[in-house]
Amino acid sequence: MRAKRKQRLLIVLGLVGLAAIAVGLTLYALRANINLFFSPVQIAQGEAPIERQIRAGGMVKVGTVERDPTSLDIAFTVTDYVGDLEVYYSGILPDLFREGQGVVVVGELQADGRFRADQVLARHDENYMPPEVAQALEEAGYSPADFQTQRGQSDAADE
Amino acid sequence: MWAFIQKLRSPKWFYAIGGKCQPWFWAAALGLIALGSVWGLAFAPADYQQGNSFRIIYVHVPTAFLAQSIFVSMAACGLAFMVWKIKLADMAASVMAPIGALMTFVALYSGAVWGVPTWGTWWIWDARLTSMLILLFLYIGVIALRRAFASLEGGARAASVLAMVGVINIPIIKYSVDWWYTLHQPASFTITGRAAMPMAMWAPLLVMVVGFYCFFIALTLTRTRSEILRREGGKRWVRELVEEGADGL
Known about the structure:
The complex is a heterodimer.
Chain A: H1 2-29, H2 31-34, H3 40-44, E1 53-60, E2 66-67, E3 73-79, E4 84-90, E5 102-109, E6 115-123, H4 131-139, H5 144-158
Parallel strand pairs in A: 4-6
Antiparallel strand pairs in A: 1-3, 1-5, 2-3, 3-4, 5-6
Chain B: H1 2-8, H2 11-43, H3 57-84, H4 87-118, H5 127-148, H6 152-166, H7 169-179, H8 199-231, H9 236-244
Helix pairs in contact in B: 2-8, 3-4, 3-6, 3-8, 4-5, 4-8, 5-6, 5-7
């Protein structure tokens, strides 16, 4: 009876193990396709196809947002602190769009290396804080965005 | 330890103990969820970027936690049923599946409602959202597979196997935001480790998470006790219980 139980346990564990290996290999094979977006440095290295719908993501570089005062046209640079990508877009932006904020842009990479976005999505990080805390940080000479990018970089360093 | 496992084989023992525990879990669940809702929705500070839409976190995070925890519990019950032939484990697994499916749906729905104002879209096929949708399909699959068999035993075995294999999806959901680029941000709420939010925001979230877990335990106890009566209806101890008119019936 005991041996039978052990056998059943081994069968179950074997089944789950095999399924895990199969799923793991599939995800490993598809790893490039599961990433939601290309980073600017990947685009700079020519990993992204030109004139096909792709997504690119990164931070909106501070001081690069240029709005056309007479239309909804906007141009900005997306950066991952290694590479830069110039993006132009015409349309309504999500509320969270601002300089220093993470974005994912959906559109086509042009032959001249600029990115024509059809949709701009805001990314936000995992940190939340009340307005008073954010204000106190600013008064102390930090912006919440600095605080978060620093934290993000130190996290990346931990890994 | 062994004696405890032996006791778990007895639905009669579980019926009695479950009956004693369930009022406490129900009271804790209702109390904590009421406290957490009022605290989180009315008194916790709003986020400096998102404003009040941040408060969706108080529903989104607890339901997403439970969606994953319930699947793991269901798989553990499946293992106990398949290897040690504990029927009670299968009864518990069968009542957990719809609760888990509901939690997954609420997590996806609240996430979509939250996504519109913050991200600018209610759905995107990123790794976190997609793996969570697969979890919902797995729950529906487990429920449907159990019903697809004419015999109780056959349905129980098939559902257990699917739950155990499906548990592979859980680490994928958890680490999707770290392994791949996603629109969804990494986890904000951890029991240990660095806090990504100040205490005034974190404390009501903790209350909600604990409250939702109590709700799950309470609902599982209540539903498992009904399931015991349904399956063991012909047994002598159940008939005696009915004749005595004992409490809980």
